[in-house]
Design a protein that fits this description.
The longest helix is centred in the middle third of the chain and has 22 residues. Strands 1, 2, 6, 7, 8, 9, 10 and 11 form an eight-stranded mixed beta sheet that branches. This protein has a seven-stranded mixed beta sheet with strand order 13-18-17-16-15-12-14, with helices on both faces. The chain is of the alpha/beta class. The protein is globular.
Length: 381
Amino acid sequence: MSVISNNGNSLGLEKASSLLHTNEKNIFIAEKSSEFRPHRGMLEEKSNLIQDIELYRMARSGYTSSPLLFKSFTNATLVKKYGIVLTQDEKFIEETVSAQKWLDPSLSFMKDALNISKNQLVEISGNALFANHGNYCVYGHFICETALSIFTMRNLIIEKGIKIILPRDNMHYIESILNILQIPKQQRLYLSDSRAYRLENLIISSACSSGVTFHPGRSLMGMSTHFKNLLCNKPVSPNPTRLYLTRDNANTTSKRILKNDQELSERLKLLNFTRIEPSSYTFEDQVRIFSEAEIIVGPHGSAFTNMIFMKPGGFVLDIIPEHWIGPGLNFTSHLSNLADLNYSFLLSKSKEIEGGYENYVDCDLVISKIHKFLNSEFDVN
């Protein structure tokens, strides 16, 4: 096995092209792990509750980013229903199984995937890239995983005609991002969920495991800068700097409803906040809007990914459902750390309902935290 390192620099065609050799496995290291210092600034939390103290320490601490790697496999089988890949000797490739393991700890999907893989396979010749979190599309995962992988490999993708296997949900922002990155349409593969595919040479990104979403590296900010440089020469009107992010029409696999959303919206309006539903905007306009934002507040969700487009020094207040603490806190606190933003969070009370959770947040606490930021009452030591 050949291992090639790029040390986090822009992708060089000569080194990365080793992934196209079908006679051996290769690993290309696009970005190594890095240590990120403790958070820039966070509201000091006064509490005698052990849970609150531990959560504060968790959000306040630094973290180690996940490396971004690319591996190539000859004659691998993609089971599109689950978005998982098997080697030619029927071994599951771990990076592609991680998301399904989280969704189905019983691992029952593995037997089904093996059965599907034994059916008549559709052959795909040449080189293809797979960088999806499972087989569905959530905005945050697509930006931090699939888009980042394509951005990192884009020179090689374009020059060598590498096909890109895309999520089943052809959301408008996917095509927008691919257009911005100048990926030819004939290289975009939206495959049927009911089939399995044998790929002559498949390049798999470690981003499939979602490590780079919850422990992001500097390459994500490199992509953010690239998008802003291309898109932010055209202003958005009106151009609010304080945003309340709603989830009215969010495309999500984890439905989370904020029961007192309207009450909070009205309270924030008095502080000159503008209520927006990010998913109703084009990707281009989301980049432009968030690039001018100074404060973002809202119930936890993928829209917080857009904080990577904010200017350093802004403020992020994430309202996290109490049942979603682990993944939620890692996602937003680490992203805000990476983007050099001030950060705080509030737990909302969760009640399980059919199809998701209903949440309630103390609006007084939300307003209080915003005033603390505006008055610079931050713990930055």
